[in-house]
Amino acid sequence: xxxxxxxxxxxxxxxxxxxxxxxxxxxxxxxxxxxxxxxxxxxxxxxxxxxxxxxxxxxxxxxxxxxxxxxxxxxxxxxxxxxxxxxxxxxxxxxxxxxxxxxxxxxxxxxxxxxxxxxxxxxxxxxxxxx
Amino acid sequence: xxxxxxxxxxxxxxxxxxxxxxxxxxxxxxxxxxxxxxxxxxxxxxxxxxxxxxxxxxxxxxxxxxxxxxxxxxxxxxxxxxxxxxxxxxxxxxxxxxxxxxxxxxxxxxxxxxxxxxxxxxxxxxxxxxxxxxxxxxxxxxxxxxxxxxxxxxxxxxxxxxxxxxxxxxxxxxxxxxxxxxxxxxxxxxxxxxxxxxxxxxxxxxxxxxxxxxxxxxxxxxxxxxxxxxxxxxxxxxxxxxxxxxxxxxxxxxxxxxxxxxxxxxxxxxxxxxxxxxxxxxxxxxxxxxxxxxxxxxxxxxxxxxxxxxxxxxxxxxxxxxxxxxxxxxxxxxxxxxxxxxxxxxxxxxxxxxxxxxxxxxxxxxxxxxxxxxxxxxxxxxxxxxxxxxxxxxxxxxxxxxxxxxxxxxxxxxxxxxxxxxxxxxxxxxxxxxxxxxxxxxxxxxxxxxxxxxxxxxxxxxxxxxxxxxxxxxxxxxxxxxxxxxxxxxxxxxxxxxxxxxxxxxxxxxx
Lengths: 131, 511
Prior knowledge:
The complex is a heterodimer of chains A (131) and B (511). Chain A has 131 residues and is of the alpha+beta class.
């Protein structure tokens, strides 16, 4: 992403801002480490934020209900990159029917995160005017 | 004014479901009359035997390799070309009413516009359709039928079979008189059932059009796809106790298992309950437990659903006649793929390229004003040929991006235009890593399937059936030296005409 990694990390690491970049998430409330999201369909999605590492810029969370997922761990890493930052969004998930759904939604979210970040957060000045 | 086009599709219907094709149980006088007045196709095949790829083929006129929807759960890209857009550009009003399934149904994030339509109170436009009112199998999900049922008849919601369990796996719970999977006594009033709803909404849309409008309407019934839960008031139309077992059912278990053993492993592994290769088949149901009476009951309910569809089609055609459009009305009746319905001791569908799933009812009743000559066509055609046919009816050039050709009007026309073969594909990649890939050619009275390398096959296996002398496809002649030359020729022909599927589009949901 052609933007400042610190600014992207600010967006990702703030649990309450997920509705700004994850398609299909309409509302969010955060209480402690529990994030409760209302999906566009009206269904709730409850997540547990398990790790926010500002040094590594790593955000990790689990889906804990009520979608039927036996195991889930989502990890977002915001890494330095010569032209801005590299965001790696990985999901470990059990072999449940929701796996395909989460996979597709995550891919869409990563694309939207890039679009939102590049439109709103601090852009990396082009050092040689080439990017 | 031009010709009006009514495309009627069912979901998961067999060739022998209608009287015009030899069906003797369900009374389908409306569809039979269309066949008698028009053209009935005796060897019509889908290009894929599950909903989403097949429906993508219907709307685009493309093989899987071009539209890209290689398995259920892969959405048809929103920028894909489609025949409705072609007709709309030619001045046609366009609608799809009923089941679309170009995009995944399981969509809790409502990422797909089809699923947002009802939630946002919209009826289109979507793709090339000015108007879309959607339904699926029951009053569930984000679609117009479910929304109307929730608003107007909430007391009836519980009458439907609940297809998905709490774990979102497809339920194999038994019901009815025999405990057959996905059967339920549904006390819903007939007029509230989705079959009549689809007809009602189609009539409402037609009534919204000016008398001089040209239009293309895809009326898409969710039935007779499982679950089998038609209105209880209609069940007495066909008493399952009275039904003979289907010809395709192999009564002796030892014989049945020997037949299954003589083909790809995906057959027997599913039969035994070891491996399900298609999400839509209940995950925990074991086909080997299917009893003869369960086969009878599922068949009876299917026939009931087919009768309701026939009557609904009759109502719509009647209204079209009242509007004064009858002489200019083309009707195409077909389905997206077939159903085992007890053949080989199986129900539902999956990676099994036999007539149960691949031989479809297809009827084209051209507009009476065009002076059609009734015919039956034996040559192979495919659902890929529907979209080009609609273009031809409308007098619009068939776009280069369509793979099919306008349907032949008789065998002589088919021969003149080279309708020699039809191809069908299957690809699946399940979350557990199971991969199955089939490529099939139907030609010269034979159906030949090669299993490409996957997790169940090593790429050397396949099936070869003689449709003339073995119409029930009991004897797999893939390894028969007497037909080795024929097999090689068919495989060569398949390779020459296959449009390779890149399988690059993401699977976004299990269905």
